[in-house]
Design goal:
This protein has 90 residues and is mostly beta strands. 0% of the residues lie in helices and 20% in strands. The chain has one domain. 24% of the residues are buried. The structure holds FE2/S2 (inorganic) cluster (FES).
């Protein structure tokens, strides 16, 4: 049986990456963060969630700046990184 943490079809999303991804966001723009971990366009949605219970999360930039999106999908401050990737144990 495979590890439930990496299936992305149960309660836990797949790990989309081991480190956060820095993005220059633009004020007023919306970004759709991948919540299932299956997207090939991390940290953003590419439609891969369709066979899972996960849905992308909208991030609306209120200013133009550099932000760090979570890629591991374990952050408590989704869609932003909160350092939880350091506890992945890999
Ligand atoms: S990349 Fe997920 S908490 Fe840092």
């Amino acid at each position: 049986m495979s590890d439930a943490v990496t299936t992305g079809t149960g309660d836990m999303p797949e790990i989309g990456g081991q480190r956060p991804i820095m993005v220059e966001v633009e004020s007023g723009k919306s970004y759709w963060w991948c919540a299932c971990g299956r997207s090939k366009s991390q940290p953003f949605c590419d439609g891969s969630h369709k066979t899972t219970a996960f849905r992308p999360v909208e991030f609306k930039a209120d200013k133009s700046e550099q932000v760090w999106f979570c890629a591991c999908k374990r952050s408590g401050k989704k869609p932003m990184c909160d350092g939880s990737h350091k506890r992945l144990g890999t």
